[in-house]
Model the fold of this input.
Amino acid sequence: MSLQRDPENLEGKTLQRFVDFKDKRILEVGCGEGRLTWKYAAASSLTVGFDPDHSALRVARADCPPDLRGHTHFSGAGAQHIPFAKETFDIAILAWSL
Amino acid sequence: MVHALSEIQRVLKPLGTLLDLRAMEDTWPVEVVSSTGWQPSGRLEALPEMMADDEAADQAMREVESAGWFIKKRVEEFPYFYYWDTPSEMKEFTETDWEGLEKFSEEVYRKTASLWASANADARVRMRVRMHIARWEKA
Done:
């Protein structure tokens, strides 16, 4: 299968134009296999990806680039209950998930 | 959806940012593209239930805006392309990975295959998805 998704990286470029991720604490809801996560997480101080699909999260953890591992984490949960204290994150991303 | 948005509102800092990024479930153009340009060959048809999901998402955002939880700051659309080397690979993908999502009709497949067969050797097929991105600020 020769599928290529967004080889022009229009999604990543648009995301970067919309928000400054530098040193921000970011929550991504519906992170799946981390396809979008890798496009911004390097600039963040903390990235937490949520997804109820545990098999997708296994892929995300396995594919996580070494330079992101210290501040990028994945959790098997949905957005109905986010196990963090109030006012924890600077940015929340609904990644193809609303 | 509104409950999930209330959770997100809770964990965001004051004036925090919510980004809503999603594909709009309408008809998605199919194109044959090569080094000399591209030609449209038809559209994938969205299923009614997918269109309803879009409307539900929009409605949820309207509700939280009315409730004063978030303020809309910026909205844009942009294209997101899926590329395949051949029409048959595209067809196989939509029938397996997208089972129950967008429909690739036989008529569009035949036209895509015909255009692809007569195009340059570097021709590929692609689908143009209309993406929505909105930036909201926590009120």
In short: Residues 93 and 99 of chain B are 9 Å apart (CA to CA).
